[in-house]
Every structure is written in structure tokens, then in C-alpha cells.
Write a structure and sequence with these properties.
Elements: E1 6-11, E2 15-21, E3 27-34, H1 41-55, E4 64-68, E5 79-81, E6 89-91, H2 93-101, E7 105-109, H3 110-121, E8 130-135, E9 139-145, E10 148-149, H4 181-184, H5 186-193, H6 197-205, H7 209-233, E11 237-241, H8 248-262, H9 265-268, E12 272-275, H10 282-297
Parallel strand pairs: 1-4, 4-7, 8-11, 11-12
Antiparallel strand pairs: 1-2, 2-3, 5-6, 8-9, 9-10
Length: about 300
């Protein structure tokens, strides 16, 4: 084989996305398969191994990266927990895949993978310091410091959606009460409005006053939540991804107002708030990049 290739995998609650990537980030082939239900570790492993055989029938790839809906250990070997998948507690997924495929494997939190993907090929490719917030079913996050993914001393850093927002707010699966996730996620939007984010986006696009007012309130809450992160990390940019980001134009102005009002200019000089660029493929792209980094480190 002239050019080496790796596989990037993004495990979700309903679908598993796989891509075969060259060193420059070109996706040569991709595949989406249904996540088995119930999504036990053994069932997910079997589906992934079968999908790898489909995407790489000639066994050309040299490493695998996997994005998980939950934290991994700092070494990228063990899926520590996946709140929304049954039976995922300290699962040695990297080792299992290495035994099944013979390929070096690294795993990471899916939002961290998305952050790495955006840093490599997306909105963060010209930035050294930024944070990513994924506004989806939950609210995930990633921190890129000096061009590198920051995961903390045990691998679980970057849970930006789990910071406290309202101490009297709704309970969160994390154990926190009133986390930012309880105000900014798709589930929170449904609870607050009885509507889906895409419905609210379409209504706002059509000039519906109620929808526009909701997005203004949403942007205000998001901006307040971002204030703490800006003070702690003073990033060059905040990159906003996930399904809710489709309505970026409607909530951005209110978020900016709160940040400008609450953050001293010394901590926000030059701060950009940008939409993510890789969409649903960000996690898969970032997982592939981590696979390349694993190969380079060995």
C-alpha cells in the first residue's frame, strides 16, 4: 500500500459512524450502521468489528480511533462510563478491538473527538487555543490548549456542559443540579418549549415572534454559562457545534451581549464565537486524527 490509512469511529446511541481516512484527513470511504439495542458493550463490539470488515475489506488500515459517548481513561484504553448505554462501566474497548482486528486502537470522549476534528480540519484549524461546545441531546465540550487536546490528569476534563448554571435547576444525569446542559441541550429545549430545535429554527426563520424570543432567552442563558469558561480559559474562540447550532444566527447575538456585559475586556480581547464546520462527521474525523497521533507516538 502506497499511502497508509486509519479508521475513525463515532459511537452514538442510535448510530455508529465509521470512516477510512488518509493522512491529510480525506475520508476515502464511510459507513453508518445502527447501534444495536440494547447497546451493551459486547453487542456494540460485534457490530463495529463487522462494520470494519465492510469499510476495510482488504485490511489496509493501520490503526483505529473511537469516539465514545462518555469519558475514557487518560491512556485512551478504557471506556469509563456511558450514561446512556447499558452496561458500560470500565470497558476495555481499545484492548477488545486490538484483539479482534490486530490494529492499535485509541478511544476518547466523543466531544473531545469533535474538538480534535475541528482543530484538524474545521473551525479551529487556524487556532491554538479554543473550546468546543456541542449542543446536542446533551451538552458536551472539548478544550484545545496550545494546539493539543486537554483531558486533565485522569482523562475526564472538558465536561463543559456539566458546569453549574442554576443551583436550584433540574437534576442532571451527572449528579449536578441545574447544570448548563439542563438549559442548553435538545432535551432541555423540548422541556422548555414542547418543540424540537429545528421546529423553533424554522419558526424563527419565518419571523415568528415567540420563537425569536425563545432563541434570545436561550442565547442569554448560553452566554451566561460561557462566562465562567471564558474567565478560566481565555480562549481565542468558542466553537459551537451539535444539532442546536443550526439556529446559531438566532441565539448568537444574545450570547455575545452577556459575555461582553459580564467578562472584563482583558479576558475576552479578540474572542470569536464561531459555528463548527464539520457537522455530524466531526467525531469520526477527530477519532481518525487520534489514531494518527497514536501511530506517530509508537
Amino acid at each position: 500500500m502506497d499511502q497508509p490509512e486509519v479508521i475513525g469511529i463515532d459511537i452514538g446511541g442510535t448510530a455508529i459512524k465509521l470512516g477510512r481516512f488518509s493522512q491529510d484527513g480525506t475520508c476515502l470511504k464511510c459507513l453508518t450502521v445502527a447501534t444495536p439495542q440494547p447497546a451493551t458493550p459486547e453487542a456494540v463490539l460485534a457490530v463495529i468489528v463487522d462494520a470494519i470488515a465492510q469499510i476495510d475489506p482488504d485490511n489496509q488500515t493501520i490503526a483505529i480511533g473511537v469516539g465514545m459517548p462518555g469519558p475514557a481513561d487518560a491512556a485512551g484504553r478504557i471506556a469509563k462510563i456511558a450514561i446512556n448505554l447499558p452496561g458500560w462501566l470500565d470497558v476495555p474497548l481499545a484492548e477488545w478491538l486490538e484483539i479482534k482486528t490486530g490494529k492499535p486502537t485509541v478511544i476518547a470522549n466523543d466531544a473531545n473527538c469533535a474538538g480534535v476534528g475541528e482543530a484538524w480540519l474545521g473551525a479551529g484549524r487556524n487556532l491554538k487555543n479554543f473550546i468546543l461546545l456541542t449542543l446536542g441531546t446533551g451538552v458536551g465540550g472539548a478544550i484545545i490548549l496550545d494546539g493539543k487536546l486537554f483531558i486533565g490528569h485522569q482523562g475526564a476534563a472538558g465536561e463543559l456542559g456539566l458546569i453549574s448554571f442554576n443551583p436550584e435547576g433540574p437534576m442532571c444525569n451527572s449528579g449536578n443540579q441545574g447544570s448548563l446542559e439542563q438549559y442548553a441541550s435538545i432535551i432541555a429545549i423540548r422541556r422548555r418549549t414542547g418543540k424540537e430545535p429545528d421546529q423553533l429554527g424554522a419558526l424563527a426563520q419565518a419571523g415568528d415572534a415567540e420563537a425569536l424570543a425563545f432563541w434570545q432567552e436561550y442565547g442569554r442563558d448560553l452566554g451566561i454559562g460561557l462566562v465562567s469558561l471564558v474567565y478560566v480559559l481565555t480562549p481565542q474562540a468558542i466553537v459551537i457545534g451539535g444539532g442546536v447550532s443550526a439556529s446559531f444566527e438566532f441565539f448568537l447575538p444574545a450570547a455575545k451581549v452577556e459575555i461582553e456585559r459580564r467578562v472584563m475586556y482583558t479576558s475576552r480581547t479578540g474572542l470569536q464565537i464561531l459555528p463548527a464546520q464539520l457537522g455530524n462527521s466531526a467525531g469520526m474525523v477527530g477519532a481518525a486524527k487520534l489514531a494518527w497521533q497514536k501511530i506517530a507516538a509508537e
